[in-house]
Specification:
Layout: H1 2-15, E1 19-22, E2 37-43, E3 46-52, E4 63-70, H2 77-81, H3 98-108, E5 113-121, H4 126-131, H5 136-150, E6 154-163, H6 167-175, E7 184-190, H7 202-211, E8 217-223, E9 229-230, E10 233-234, H8 242-253, E11 259-261, E12 267-272, E13 277-282, H9 300-306, H10 335-338, H11 364-370, H12 376-388, E14 400-407, E15 413-420, E16 426-428, E17 433-435, H13 440-449, E18 452-453, H14 457-466, E19 469-470, H15 483-497, E20 506-507, E21 511-513, H16 518-521, E22 528-532, E23 538-543, E24 555-556, E25 560-561, E26 563-566, E27 569-572, H17 573-578
Parallel strand pairs: 4-5, 4-6, 6-7, 7-8, 8-13, 19-20, 21-24
Antiparallel strand pairs: 1-2, 2-3, 3-5, 9-10, 11-12, 12-13, 14-15, 15-26, 16-17, 18-25, 21-22, 22-23, 26-27
Length: about 600
């Protein structure tokens, strides 16, 4: 009982922060064969995933070294972690392999706990994310602080690492303060120093940080990209690229420190401050695009993490072949499942809603009556906590697969599979639960915590068409926004549903909160749609008439897993919705660039 109490307390503490944490090391699924611990959450329209060693290999007395890895443009966290090449998989899964390289690092550095925090920007581009946010340096510093606070372990030290456009994250971090935090011990730029700026005093800040502690290391890996062509055009501008940026950095540093050169036919190597500063620039005589090869094929991540340590060059060869081959997993990680392997995690929609002990649960009706007189913000905060801590019916944990197809812009028919919650979001147990209408902000916070999305209008129609149980809508007119009306309407639905299988896909009982392009012009509104009659026509056409704080008894939150399958290949919902060719699979409004609501409390 003492151990159970500790687990529940830990779950409440973590999940109240709208993140999820899994500490089960014995669950070895194809997508998480190494039983790694995972936490998933969102902050400032960015997705953050922490990956730690299995619980039985995590030494509580050992120091913890955290690598914050800012993703390259156009890559998801799942693709960055990587898996074995498969004709059915997107090629991005087989280029970086940060997951496998991290497992190799854990083998060669067993005296420390190595934790990686993957940082994915909304839109899969840190430069674009920054352009939309004038306050981005401060927001990025906040992300770093949150990772430090949420990562497990003691005696924590950090590596800031980035690949490609992820370098924008590091430069924004530097812009966010006068100094680099003392606990940062290494900075790694993997072909990621495009935005280095003397005018922003990046060189001065890096040198001051390096000089303050001889154990600190700066590693820059780049290649000569000046004459590389793609489709007949240069891949970088006349002043751009990482080759030129690297030499701008070297020129600035050379005003304060002395460099040693150890060049050969393949590499330009520059080292200073007894190895604290290391530049490795591939000469690229064949003018290839080596952008990702530096990271994956050449073992760049492992090399950058071990330079200037006793483990340098003990694990294999920088430049290839892959030294981490045995550590590549066979299937893409399902972060929803991986973060929910244990009873006190909440990220997996199907399994990871935290399994609150029955004695800790409050029935749905009792809970709703207990918050009936609370102000909206306090009421919704309580609902979010209750859902995320796991006080939900068990039948909601098994998501239902919806299959659809559409002719895309390329003229070809494509197929999609997505998984949806079988009923609307509820609080309570199988025997005593209440569906919980929410504002879009609260619904988005729950979706973020569970690595889910809200549906589009087209998805709502597909869900209704596939529903096993279709019920006739029962509108109410009095006190539409009162909790008591929520409870009454829930009882009416349950009367209609009597005798039907729990967990069957049900529809026709609520209007859905949906994502829509109409919110682009009215960002302070809520989009609702649906509540289909038995003839298949919706009572509620797509509407944004209500402001974002409006919620009544007829509104429902149906969660959809973010990861979908397009022609049997995994993608994220937001990737599909932003793809001009594939968006028709999920949207009847064309491309949806903003597939989420603001999630601030």
């Amino acid at each position: 009982m003492h151990r159970l109490s500790r687990i529940i307390a830990l779950a409440v503490m973590l999940l109240a922060r709208t993140s999820s944490w899994s500490a089960e090391a014995d669950s070895r699924r194809a997508d998480n064969p190494f039983g790694e611990q995972v936490a998933v959450w969102r902050l400032h329209e960015a997705r953050i995933v922490i990956n730690a060693p299995p619980a039985e290999r995590f030494g509580q007395a050992r120091p913890t070294r955290i690598v914050l890895y800012a993703l390259p443009n156009g890559n998801t966290i799942e693709q960055t972690i990587g898996c074995r090449a498969n004709p059915q998989q997107d090629w991005h899964f087989d280029i970086q392999h940060i997951g496998a390289q991290t497992r190799l690092l854990r083998e060669i550095q067993p005296d420390i706990n190595i934790v990686v925090a993957y940082l994915e920007a909304e839109g899969l581009s840190w430069p674009a994310w920054r352009q939309k946010r004038a306050a981005s340096p401060g927001l990025i510093r906040e992300m770093v602080e949150q990772v430090i606070a949420r990562a497990p372990g003691r005696d924590k030290r950090l590596t800031l690492a980035a690949h490609s456009g992820g370098g924008s994250f590091i430069w924004a971090y530097l812009d966010g303060g006068d100094a680099i935090q003392e606990m940062i011990e290494r900075i790694v730029l993997l072909d990621a120093n495009y935005s280095y700026s003397d005018e922003s005093h990046h060189g001065e800040k890096l040198l001051a940080w390096l000089k303050a502690d001889r154990s600190r290391v700066l590693v820059v890996i780049a290649y000569d990209d000046r004459d590389v062509m793609l489709n007949g055009r240069p891949v970088v501008s006349a002043t751009g690229g990482t080759y030129r940026a690297s030499h701008r950095m070297i020129d600035r540093f050379a005003r304060d420190v002395t460099f040693e050169s150890t060049d050969d036919q393949t590499w330009q190597r520059r080292s200073a401050m007894n190895g604290q500063v290391r530049f490795l620039i591939h000469r690229n005589p064949h003018r290839k695009i080596l952008h990702t090869a530096l990271v994956g094929e050449m073992n760049g991540f492992v090399h950058a993490r071990t330079l200037n340590t006793p483990h340098e060059n003990t694990w294999g060869t920088f430049g290839g072949p892959r030294a981490y081959e045995k550590w590549i997993q066979s299937a893409p990680v399902d972060l929803a499942q991986a973060s929910g392997a244990t009873s006190h995690a909440s990220a997996a929609p199907s399994q990871a809603l935290a399994a609150t002990a029955p004695s800790q649960r409050m029935g749905g009706g009792e809970f709703m009556r207990s918050i009936a007189d609370w102000p909206l913000e306090q009421r919704e905060a309580a609902i979010v906590r209750e859902v995320v801590r796991g006080n939900v019916p068990n039948f909601l944990r098994s998501f239902v697969t919806i299959r659809a197809q559409a002719v895309a812009a390329d003229g070809k028919e494509h197929r999609i599979e997505f998984k949806v919650m079988p009923d609307y979001l509820s609080v309570g147990s199988d025997d005593d639960f209440a569906r919980v209408p929410l504002t879009p902000s609260a619904a988005q916070r729950i979706a973020d915590a569970l690595d889910c999305s809200l549906p589009t209008r087209k998805m709502v129609d597909a869900i209704y068409a596939a529903a096993e149980v279709k019920l006739d809508p029962r509108p109410m007119t009095d006190r539409r926004q009162a909790i008591e009306t929520f409870i009454q309407h829930n009882a009416i639905i349950e009367g209609q549903r009597a005798g039907k299988r729990a967990g069957a896909l049900v529809a026709g009982i609520k209007k859905d909160l949906v994502i829509s392009n109409r919110l682009n012009d009215k960002p302070d509104r809520v989009a609702i749609y649906g509540w289909h009659r038995l003839d298949g026509t919706p009572i509620q056409p797509l509407s944004t008439v209500h402001d974002s704080r409006y919620v009544d008894y007829s509104h429902g939150v149906r969660l959809v897993k973010r990861q979908v399958l397009v022609d049997e290949k995994p993608m994220m919902i937001e990737q599909v919705l932003r793809d001009p060719n594939l968006c028709a699979l999920l949207s009847d409004e064309g491309v949806i660039d903003q597939p989420r609501y603001p999630s601030r409390p």
